[in-house]
């Protein structure tokens, strides 16, 4: 008996189904009464009738354990860029620094003072700085994308440097401790002067500096409103990202050489940092 159980345990699923049908037929034969002799004779006299066997393929197609559930893939939401509209908020854009993730904007809230914000900062409740361009910014105002542009009066005017005139040379001394202290607070440093790309007819680009705060690093460096900065340590300032890289590299430099135009005159200033 044990050997038979082991043998049955090794049978495949189609073989098990055939055995079930055979056993059911055998049990039905045991339970039904035996036919009488007269019935046997009558059945022999009758013509044989073909008995249809169960269709094995149909039996195999019957799901014994239920119908498998097929999960439908949900359609992924398609990101739709929100339209950008002009902002009605009382926020004035005074200046920008475009340097990738380190970009910043200088704004004035209502009639208050100037403040600097980097991308992702909360300008005021419900207003987040999302994008910084050369002359505009994009904010998220309670889920709506809005744009704030720099007024035309704040854009730099054209300048023409005197070509062929000899450049003036000036030497100055700066305190390293004072320089590092000022450069460690970038948001405050950005509010102490306004830098805007210069639009000129000459071959050199640069940035026009204005609104210098008294006592700031810019004033200590001898810079004046209206100066156009062209080069620092020989590097041409022709885009805001270079200005940001230069800011990071000047923190430990022993000296700084600046080339600028003041009142149409080209000047060079050498700073010894001690």
UniProtKB/TrEMBL annotation:
GO terms for cellular component: plasma membrane. Its main location: membrane. Pfam families: PDZ_6 (PF17820), T2SSC (PF11356). This is PDZ domain-containing protein. InterPro entries: PDZ (IPR001478), PDZ_6 (IPR041489), PDZ_sf (IPR036034), T2SS_GspC_N (IPR024961). Keywords: Cell inner membrane, Cell membrane, Membrane, Protein transport, Transmembrane, Transmembrane helix, Transport. The keyword Cell membrane applies. It is found in: Cell inner membrane. GO terms for biological process: protein transport. The lineage of its organism: Bacteria, Pseudomonadati, Pseudomonadota, Candidatius Mariprofundia, Mariprofundales. The chain crosses the membrane at residues 12-32. Residues 184-264 form the PDZ domain.
């Amino acid at each position: 008996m044990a050997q038979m159980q082991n043998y049955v345990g090794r049978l495949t699923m189609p073989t098990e189904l055939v055995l079930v049908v055979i056993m059911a037929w055998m049990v039905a034969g045991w339970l039904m009464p035996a036919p009488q002799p007269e019935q046997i004779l009558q059945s022999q006299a009758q013509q044989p009738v073909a008995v249809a066997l169960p269709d094995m393929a149909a039996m195999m197609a019957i799901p014994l354990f239920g119908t498998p559930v097929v999960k439908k893939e949900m359609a992924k939401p398609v990101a739709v860029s929100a339209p950008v509209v002009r902002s009605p908020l009382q926020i004035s854009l005074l200046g920008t620094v475009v340097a990738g993730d380190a970009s910043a904007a200088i704004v004035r809230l209502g009639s208050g003072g100037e403040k600097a914000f980097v991308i992702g900062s909360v300008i005021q409740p419900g207003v987040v700085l999302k994008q910084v361009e050369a002359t505009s910014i994009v904010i998220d105002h309670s889920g709506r994308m809005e744009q704030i542009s720099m007024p035309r009066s704040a854009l730099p005017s054209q300048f023409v440097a005197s070509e062929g005139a000899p450049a003036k040379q000036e030497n100055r001394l700066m305190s390293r401790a004072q320089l590092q202290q000022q450069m460690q607070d970038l948001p405050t440093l950005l509010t102490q002067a306004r830098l805007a790309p210069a639009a000129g007819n000459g071959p050199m680009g640069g940035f026009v500096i204005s609104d210098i705060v008294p006592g700031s690093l810019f004033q200590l460096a001898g810079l004046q409103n209206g100066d156009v900065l062209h080069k620092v340590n020989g590097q041409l300032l022709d885009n805001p990202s270079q200005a940001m890289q230069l800011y990071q590299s000047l923190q430990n430099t022993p000296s700084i050489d600046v080339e600028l135009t003041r009142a149409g005159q080209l000047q060079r200033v050498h700073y010894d940092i001690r």
